[in-house]
Amino acid sequence: MPEQDRWFFLYTVTISNEGNETVRLKNRHWVITDGDGHVQEVRGSGVVGEQPVLKPGQSFKYTSGCPLRTAFGFMRGTYTMLTEDGESFEAQIADFELSEPYAIN
């Protein structure tokens, strides 16, 4: 990331398998937008060094971080999930806000 990144945000995600099949989280894709509208895409294998396997009803919780050049922004993305039969699907991650406490946009 560029040297001008001045804020670092931590976020916690809980992934729950509400389906009927066991799945593995294979890849992640994040679209990160800062308060000035600059967009960065991040793609990678798994999350926090893991490719968790979730049986029906199980959850996986992790915390990660994101540097930004502004005091606020947002993230959205997808997880590529793989079933035991080898079929993949994209699990959508809704927008969530990254903001410095007490910052006004």
TrEMBL record:
NCBIfam families (UniProt xref): PRK05461.1
Annotated SUPFAM superfamilies: ApaG-like
Pfam families from the UniProt entry: DUF525
InterPro entries linked: ApaG-like, ApaG_domain, ApaG_sf
Name by which UniProt lists this protein: ApaG domain-containing protein
Residue span, ApaG domain: 1-105
Species for this entry: marine metagenome
